[in-house]
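Whiteboard transcription, Tuesday session. T.W. wrote the C-alpha coordinates on the left side:
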Protein backbone atom coordinates (compact mmCIF):
# COMPACT_ATOMS: atom_id res chain seq x y z
CA UNK A 1 0.00 0.00 0.00
CA UNK A 2 1.26 3.48 -0.85
CA UNK A 3 2.27 5.16 2.42
CA UNK A 4 0.64 8.55 1.78
CA UNK A 5 -2.30 9.02 4.15
CA UNK A 6 -4.38 11.65 5.88
CA UNK A 7 -4.90 10.71 9.51
CA UNK A 8 -8.12 12.18 10.92
CA UNK A 9 -8.26 12.60 14.70
CA UNK A 10 -11.93 12.69 15.69
CA UNK A 11 -11.13 13.31 19.36
CA UNK A 12 -9.42 16.55 18.29
CA UNK A 13 -12.50 17.45 16.23
CA UNK A 14 -14.78 16.99 19.23
CA UNK A 15 -12.39 19.00 21.38
CA UNK A 16 -12.52 21.84 18.84
CA UNK A 17 -16.32 21.74 18.87
CA UNK A 18 -16.25 22.34 22.64
CA UNK A 19 -13.79 25.23 22.24
CA UNK A 20 -16.06 26.90 19.69
CA UNK A 21 -19.19 26.30 21.72
CA UNK A 22 -17.50 27.76 24.83
CA UNK A 23 -16.71 30.87 22.81
CA UNK A 24 -20.43 31.45 22.16
CA UNK A 25 -22.38 29.43 24.72
CA UNK A 26 -25.71 31.07 23.88
CA UNK A 27 -25.50 30.29 20.15
CA UNK A 28 -25.96 27.11 18.19
CA UNK A 29 -23.35 25.95 15.72
CA UNK A 30 -23.74 24.68 12.18
CA UNK A 31 -20.86 22.32 11.49
CA UNK A 32 -19.65 23.33 8.03
CA UNK A 33 -18.80 20.04 6.30
CA UNK A 34 -18.85 21.18 2.66
CA UNK A 35 -16.15 19.99 0.24
CA UNK A 36 -15.87 16.66 2.07
CA UNK A 37 -15.41 18.52 5.37
CA UNK A 38 -12.49 20.51 3.92
CA UNK A 39 -10.96 17.17 2.92
CA UNK A 40 -11.42 15.60 6.38
CA UNK A 41 -14.10 13.11 5.23
CA UNK A 42 -17.58 14.54 5.68
CA UNK A 43 -19.18 11.32 6.87
CA UNK A 44 -16.62 10.67 9.60
CA UNK A 45 -16.78 14.29 10.73
CA UNK A 46 -20.59 14.47 10.69
CA UNK A 47 -20.90 11.19 12.55
CA UNK A 48 -18.33 12.19 15.16
CA UNK A 49 -20.35 15.36 15.89
CA UNK A 50 -23.79 13.77 15.61
CA UNK A 51 -24.53 13.89 19.35
CA UNK A 52 -23.56 17.56 19.73
CA UNK A 53 -24.19 19.28 16.38
CA UNK A 54 -27.78 20.41 15.77
CA UNK A 55 -27.10 21.25 12.13
CA UNK A 56 -24.65 20.73 9.26
CA UNK A 57 -23.92 23.15 6.46
CA UNK A 58 -22.87 21.99 2.99
CA UNK A 59 -22.57 23.68 -0.38
CA UNK A 60 -25.15 21.72 -2.33
CA UNK A 61 -27.81 19.02 -2.22
CA UNK A 62 -25.42 16.30 -3.45
CA UNK A 63 -23.34 16.77 -0.32
CA UNK A 64 -26.46 16.79 1.85
CA UNK A 65 -27.95 13.66 0.31
CA UNK A 66 -24.74 11.77 1.12
CA UNK A 67 -25.19 12.71 4.79
CA UNK A 68 -28.84 11.65 4.77
CA UNK A 69 -27.93 8.35 3.08
CA UNK A 70 -25.55 7.69 5.99
CA UNK A 71 -28.49 8.06 8.35
CA UNK A 72 -27.82 11.54 9.74
CA UNK A 73 -31.05 13.24 10.85
CA UNK A 74 -29.87 16.75 11.79
CA UNK A 75 -30.92 19.88 9.99
CA UNK A 76 -28.82 20.46 6.85
CA UNK A 77 -28.36 23.90 5.33
CA UNK A 78 -27.40 24.28 1.64
CA UNK A 79 -25.12 27.33 1.53
CA UNK A 80 -25.45 27.85 -2.24
CA UNK A 81 -29.15 27.05 -2.21
CA UNK A 82 -30.67 25.30 -5.19
CA UNK A 83 -29.47 25.37 -8.77
CA UNK A 84 -32.71 24.36 -10.49
CA UNK A 85 -36.42 24.11 -9.59
CA UNK A 86 -36.15 20.32 -9.65
CA UNK A 87 -34.21 20.48 -6.39
CA UNK A 88 -37.19 21.88 -4.49
CA UNK A 89 -38.88 18.47 -4.24
CA UNK A 90 -35.58 16.94 -3.12
CA UNK A 91 -35.21 19.56 -0.38
CA UNK A 92 -38.72 18.87 0.85
CA UNK A 93 -38.31 15.12 0.73
CA UNK A 94 -34.87 15.06 2.38
CA UNK A 95 -35.59 17.92 4.78
CA UNK A 96 -32.83 20.21 3.46
CA UNK A 97 -32.81 23.95 4.11
CA UNK A 98 -31.59 25.88 1.06
CA UNK A 99 -30.16 29.38 1.47
CA UNK A 100 -32.15 31.45 -1.02
CA UNK A 101 -29.91 34.17 -2.40
CA UNK A 102 -31.40 35.09 -5.78
CA UNK A 103 -34.74 36.23 -7.19
CA UNK A 104 -34.88 33.32 -9.61
CA UNK A 105 -34.78 30.91 -6.66
CA UNK A 106 -37.68 32.80 -5.03
CA UNK A 107 -39.59 32.52 -8.30
CA UNK A 108 -38.99 28.77 -8.39
CA UNK A 109 -40.29 28.46 -4.82
CA UNK A 110 -43.34 30.55 -5.67
CA UNK A 111 -44.13 28.40 -8.70
CA UNK A 112 -43.66 25.11 -6.82
CA UNK A 113 -45.56 26.05 -3.63
CA UNK A 114 -43.91 23.03 -1.98
CA UNK A 115 -43.68 23.22 1.82
CA UNK A 116 -40.06 23.45 2.90
CA UNK A 117 -37.68 25.21 5.27
CA UNK A 118 -35.32 27.83 3.89
CA UNK A 119 -33.09 30.78 4.76
CA UNK A 120 -32.70 34.13 3.03
CA UNK A 121 -29.23 35.41 2.25
CA UNK A 122 -28.48 39.09 2.62
CA UNK A 123 -25.47 40.61 0.88
CA UNK A 124 -24.06 42.98 3.48
CA UNK A 125 -20.82 43.69 1.60
CA UNK A 126 -19.20 40.43 0.49
CA UNK A 127 -20.87 40.83 -2.94
CA UNK A 128 -20.69 37.14 -3.69
CA UNK A 129 -24.26 35.96 -3.09
CA UNK A 130 -27.36 37.49 -1.58
CA UNK A 131 -30.04 40.17 -1.79
CA UNK A 132 -28.96 43.74 -1.17
CA UNK A 133 -29.43 44.77 2.46
CA UNK A 134 -31.00 48.02 1.24
CA UNK A 135 -33.86 46.07 -0.35
CA UNK A 136 -34.49 43.83 2.62
CA UNK A 137 -37.84 45.33 3.56
CA UNK A 138 -39.44 44.49 0.21
CA UNK A 139 -37.69 41.14 0.21
CA UNK A 140 -39.01 40.15 3.63
CA UNK A 141 -42.51 41.24 2.62
CA UNK A 142 -42.26 39.09 -0.51
CA UNK A 143 -41.00 36.16 1.55
CA UNK A 144 -43.82 36.44 4.06
CA UNK A 145 -46.31 36.13 1.18
CA UNK A 146 -45.01 32.59 0.62
CA UNK A 147 -46.75 30.68 3.43
CA UNK A 148 -45.53 27.29 2.16
CA UNK A 149 -41.94 28.33 3.02
CA UNK A 150 -41.03 28.00 6.68
CA UNK A 151 -38.42 30.78 6.78
CA UNK A 152 -35.72 30.03 9.35
CA UNK A 153 -34.08 33.42 9.17
CA UNK A 154 -31.28 35.33 7.54
CA UNK A 155 -27.76 34.32 6.56
CA UNK A 156 -24.95 36.72 5.70
CA UNK A 157 -21.21 36.27 5.26
CA UNK A 158 -18.22 38.46 6.16
CA UNK A 159 -15.52 39.22 3.62
CA UNK A 160 -12.84 40.37 6.08
CA UNK A 161 -13.61 38.99 9.54
CA UNK A 162 -10.12 37.42 9.49
CA UNK A 163 -8.39 40.74 8.85
CA UNK A 164 -6.42 42.80 11.38
CA UNK A 165 -8.47 45.80 10.33
CA UNK A 166 -12.10 45.09 11.13
CA UNK A 167 -13.52 48.24 9.54
CA UNK A 168 -15.06 46.36 6.61
CA UNK A 169 -16.51 43.63 8.81
CA UNK A 170 -17.94 46.21 11.20
CA UNK A 171 -19.54 48.00 8.25
CA UNK A 172 -21.19 44.72 7.25
CA UNK A 173 -22.34 44.11 10.81
CA UNK A 174 -23.88 47.59 11.02
CA UNK A 175 -25.95 46.82 7.92
CA UNK A 176 -27.09 43.55 9.44
CA UNK A 177 -28.03 45.19 12.72
CA UNK A 178 -30.34 47.53 10.81
CA UNK A 179 -32.39 44.70 9.28
CA UNK A 180 -35.99 44.56 10.49
CA UNK A 181 -36.35 40.81 10.84
CA UNK A 182 -39.75 39.20 11.27
CA UNK A 183 -40.18 38.06 14.90
CA UNK A 184 -39.38 34.38 14.69
CA UNK A 185 -36.49 34.69 12.25
CA UNK A 186 -33.01 33.70 13.36
CA UNK A 187 -29.66 35.21 12.41
CA UNK A 188 -26.62 33.34 11.09
CA UNK A 189 -23.81 35.75 10.28
CA UNK A 190 -20.57 34.48 11.80
CA UNK A 191 -17.99 32.17 10.24
CA UNK A 192 -15.01 30.93 12.29
CA UNK A 193 -13.14 34.22 12.18
CA UNK A 194 -16.17 36.27 13.22
CA UNK A 195 -16.92 33.95 16.14
CA UNK A 196 -13.65 35.10 17.70
CA UNK A 197 -13.16 38.59 16.28
CA UNK A 198 -16.72 39.91 16.04
CA UNK A 199 -18.66 38.52 18.99
CA UNK A 200 -21.45 41.03 18.32
CA UNK A 201 -22.18 39.09 15.12
CA UNK A 202 -22.81 35.80 16.88
CA UNK A 203 -26.63 35.77 16.69
CA UNK A 204 -28.52 32.50 17.07
CA UNK A 205 -26.49 30.37 14.66
CA UNK A 206 -22.75 30.24 13.99
CA UNK A 207 -21.24 28.61 10.93
CA UNK A 208 -17.94 27.03 11.91
CA UNK A 209 -15.66 25.48 9.32
CA UNK A 210 -11.92 25.95 9.46
CA UNK A 211 -11.62 26.21 13.25
CA UNK A 212 -13.57 23.00 13.70
CA UNK A 213 -10.67 21.37 11.89
CA UNK A 214 -8.23 22.96 14.32
CA UNK A 215 -6.89 25.61 11.96
CA UNK A 216 -6.72 29.36 12.32
CA UNK A 217 -8.31 31.61 9.69
CA UNK A 218 -6.03 34.44 10.81
CA UNK A 219 -2.65 35.20 9.35
CA UNK A 220 0.16 34.96 11.90
CA UNK A 221 -1.64 32.61 14.25
CA UNK A 222 -2.18 28.89 14.64
CA UNK A 223 -5.15 26.90 15.87
CA UNK A 224 -3.18 26.12 19.03
CA UNK A 225 -3.28 29.84 19.91
CA UNK A 226 -7.05 29.39 20.35
CA UNK A 227 -6.77 26.07 22.17
CA UNK A 228 -7.63 24.13 19.01
CA UNK A 229 -6.07 20.85 17.91
CA UNK A 230 -5.17 19.87 14.34
CA UNK A 231 -7.62 17.24 13.09
CA UNK A 232 -5.70 16.18 9.96
CA UNK A 233 -2.12 14.97 9.78
CA UNK A 234 -0.82 14.36 6.27
CA UNK A 235 1.91 11.77 6.37
CA UNK A 236 4.00 9.89 3.86
CA UNK A 237 7.32 8.04 3.76
CA UNK A 238 10.74 8.32 2.20
CA UNK A 239 10.88 6.01 -0.82
CA UNK A 240 14.62 6.40 -1.52
CA UNK A 241 17.54 8.71 -0.86
CA UNK A 242 20.39 9.62 -3.21
CA UNK A 243 23.80 11.07 -2.46
CA UNK A 244 24.57 14.05 -4.68
CA UNK A 245 27.78 15.95 -5.13
CA UNK A 246 27.76 19.72 -5.04
CA UNK A 247 26.25 21.20 -8.21
CA UNK A 248 24.55 17.96 -9.28
CA UNK A 249 20.95 18.38 -10.39
CA UNK A 250 17.83 16.37 -9.61
CA UNK A 251 14.29 16.06 -10.87
CA UNK A 252 12.51 17.24 -13.99
CA UNK A 253 14.06 20.26 -15.67
CA UNK A 254 17.01 19.93 -13.26
CA UNK A 255 14.66 21.68 -10.83
CA UNK A 256 17.08 21.21 -7.95
CA UNK A 257 20.83 21.84 -7.85
CA UNK A 258 22.63 20.49 -4.78
CA UNK A 259 24.12 23.43 -2.84
CA UNK A 260 26.72 21.07 -1.31
CA UNK A 261 27.28 17.37 -1.26
CA UNK A 262 24.58 15.56 0.65
CA UNK A 263 21.46 13.44 0.64
CA UNK A 264 18.26 14.02 -1.31
CA UNK A 265 15.12 12.10 -0.33
CA UNK A 266 12.25 11.15 -2.63
CA UNK A 267 8.85 11.02 -0.91
CA UNK A 268 5.48 9.71 -2.03
CA UNK A 269 3.29 12.76 -2.68
CA UNK A 270 2.70 14.72 -5.85
CA UNK A 271 0.22 16.83 -7.71
CA UNK A 272 -1.78 13.67 -8.40
CA UNK A 273 -2.52 13.74 -4.68
CA UNK A 274 -3.50 17.40 -4.70
CA UNK A 275 -0.09 18.67 -3.61
CA UNK A 276 0.17 21.69 -5.87
CA UNK A 277 3.08 21.69 -8.28
CA UNK A 278 4.19 25.11 -7.12
CA UNK A 279 4.68 23.90 -3.49
CA UNK A 280 8.39 23.39 -4.05
CA UNK A 281 9.82 26.76 -3.24
CA UNK A 282 12.68 25.53 -1.02
CA UNK A 283 10.88 27.28 1.85
CA UNK A 284 8.16 24.71 2.50
CA UNK A 285 9.04 22.56 5.52
CA UNK A 286 8.37 18.90 6.26
CA UNK A 287 9.10 17.08 9.51
CA UNK A 288 11.23 13.93 9.83
CA UNK A 289 11.85 12.55 13.31
CA UNK A 290 11.06 15.96 14.75
CA UNK A 291 13.47 17.87 12.46
CA UNK A 292 12.53 20.32 9.74
CA UNK A 293 13.71 19.77 6.17
CA UNK A 294 12.57 21.55 3.01
CA UNK A 295 10.91 20.50 -0.22
CA UNK A 296 13.08 21.22 -3.25
CA UNK A 297 12.90 20.78 -7.02
CA UNK A 298 9.71 20.33 -9.01
CA UNK A 299 6.77 18.43 -7.54
CA UNK A 300 5.84 15.65 -9.96
CA UNK A 301 2.62 13.68 -10.30
CA UNK A 302 3.48 11.05 -7.69
CA UNK A 303 6.64 12.23 -5.94
CA UNK A 304 8.45 15.19 -4.46
CA UNK A 305 12.01 15.81 -3.22
CA UNK A 306 13.45 16.87 0.14
CA UNK A 307 16.99 18.09 0.73
CA UNK A 308 18.48 16.31 3.76
CA UNK A 309 22.03 17.69 3.49
CA UNK A 310 24.40 15.72 5.71
CA UNK A 311 21.63 13.59 7.24
CA UNK A 312 20.33 10.36 5.83
CA UNK A 313 17.28 8.26 6.71
CA UNK A 314 16.29 4.77 5.64
CA UNK A 315 13.54 4.19 3.09
CA UNK A 316 10.25 3.85 4.96
CA UNK A 317 10.98 6.70 7.40
CA UNK A 318 7.81 8.69 8.12
CA UNK A 319 7.55 12.27 6.83
CA UNK A 320 4.90 14.66 8.16
CA UNK A 321 3.75 17.24 5.59
CA UNK A 322 1.48 19.04 8.06
CA UNK A 323 -0.65 18.22 11.08
CA UNK A 324 0.02 17.44 14.73
CA UNK A 325 3.72 18.36 14.80
CA UNK A 326 3.99 20.76 11.89
CA UNK A 327 1.22 23.36 11.75
CA UNK A 328 -0.69 23.54 8.45
CA UNK A 329 -0.75 27.31 8.96
CA UNK A 330 3.08 27.41 8.81
CA UNK A 331 3.19 25.20 5.73
CA UNK A 332 0.47 27.20 4.01
CA UNK A 333 2.25 30.49 4.67
CA UNK A 334 5.51 29.09 3.30
CA UNK A 335 3.65 27.79 0.24
CA UNK A 336 1.95 31.17 -0.26
CA UNK A 337 -1.52 29.73 0.19
CA UNK A 338 -4.03 29.41 3.05
CA UNK A 339 -4.52 26.35 5.25
CA UNK A 340 -8.03 25.82 3.83
CA UNK A 341 -6.54 24.74 0.51
CA UNK A 342 -3.98 22.26 1.83
CA UNK A 343 -6.54 19.79 3.18
CA UNK A 344 -9.37 20.54 0.75
CA UNK A 345 -7.38 19.98 -2.42
CA UNK A 346 -6.21 16.47 -1.54
CA UNK A 347 -7.44 13.94 -4.10
CA UNK A 348 -9.13 10.59 -3.37
CA UNK A 349 -5.80 8.82 -3.95
CA UNK A 350 -4.68 9.96 -0.49
CA UNK A 351 -5.63 7.13 1.86
CA UNK A 352 -7.99 8.02 4.70
CA UNK A 353 -7.17 6.74 8.20
CA UNK A 354 -9.76 7.71 10.79
CA UNK A 355 -8.82 7.59 14.46
CA UNK A 356 -11.68 7.64 16.91
CA UNK A 357 -9.36 8.70 19.72
C1 LIG B 1 -17.40 27.99 3.98
C2 LIG B 1 -18.38 28.90 4.62
C3 LIG B 1 -18.38 29.07 6.02
C4 LIG B 1 -17.31 28.51 6.93
O1 LIG B 1 -16.24 29.41 6.98
P1 LIG B 1 -14.94 29.15 7.88
O2 LIG B 1 -14.08 30.32 7.63
O3 LIG B 1 -14.33 27.89 7.37
O4 LIG B 1 -15.42 29.02 9.28
C5 LIG B 1 -19.40 29.84 6.56
N1 LIG B 1 -20.34 30.42 5.79
C6 LIG B 1 -20.35 30.29 4.45
C7 LIG B 1 -21.41 30.96 3.66
C8 LIG B 1 -19.36 29.54 3.82
O5 LIG B 1 -19.36 29.45 2.47
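and on the right, the sequence the group agreed on:
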Amino acid sequence: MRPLKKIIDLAALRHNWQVLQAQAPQARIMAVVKANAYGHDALSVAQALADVAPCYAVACSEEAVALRAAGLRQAIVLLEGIFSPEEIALCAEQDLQPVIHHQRQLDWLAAAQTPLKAWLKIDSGMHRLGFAAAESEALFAQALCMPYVDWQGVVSHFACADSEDLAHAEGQLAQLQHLQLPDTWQRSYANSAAIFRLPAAQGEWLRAGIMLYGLSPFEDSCGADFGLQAVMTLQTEILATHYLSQGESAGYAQGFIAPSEGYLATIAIGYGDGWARRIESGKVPVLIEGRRYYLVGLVTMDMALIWLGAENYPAGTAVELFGKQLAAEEVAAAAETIPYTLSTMLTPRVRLEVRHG
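Someone added at the bottom: The two ends are 23 Å apart (CA to CA).
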